[in-house]
Amino acid sequence: MYTVLVCDDDNDIRRALRIYLTGDGYNVLEAANGLEALELMDREEVHLVILDVMMPEMDGVSALKRLRETSSVPVILLTAKSEDEDKIMGLELGADDYVTKPFNAQEVLARVKAILRRYMHSATMTDRPSVLVIGGIELDDENKEVSVDGEKITITPKEYDILKFFMENPGKVFSSREIYRRVWNDKPMGAEGTVAVHIRHLREKLEINPAMPQYLKLVWGKGYKLEG
Prior knowledge:
With 228 residues, this protein is an alpha/beta fold. The protein folds into two domains: 3-120, Response regulator (Rossmann fold), CATH 3.40.50.2300; 131-226, Orthogonal Bundle (Arc Repressor Mutant, subunit A), CATH 1.10.10.10. It is built from eight helices and eleven strands. The relative contact order is 0.10.
């Protein structure tokens, strides 16, 4: 049974998500602010976090920043529809996805299922190797590890998915919309900004000089590609 931590200061939102998640077989932990969430994470094994941005004592962005210092657990942010800066900041700090309020609890459940299916089942296609190598980048899909020039690096689950997608399709150019559709398994609404943020963070971790990337390259007017 997978455990989902729901962190929101609104009791009604926590209750609604708890009903849908427990009804689908998930174990649910609840926190009313970022501090409570971090304390729970220290004590309990959590497989995914649903994290509200606006909360008292410690907001979701601050909690996410602290969380990413020690954990790569998948995180879905809950944001106000008009707060685009919160979405971008959350993605930059390592959030895997976001849902805007007001939301349909079934939509959140669907996103939880999709993320956990990718990250926890560790299912790979039998005709693909478990270790992918492009230049100095090595991705070990069995152990979910990435190294660059022999040094292991820490990346978020979503960054891992994007890198794996590119390494399975070396040299091919993909638009932001196509990357979003293939990696997020969702309609590419607002795909350009979301993908650009994740690509920038991947470059910072993979490249010697992110401003002049050796691997993840932009093809003007077309999209991105991975070269060896």
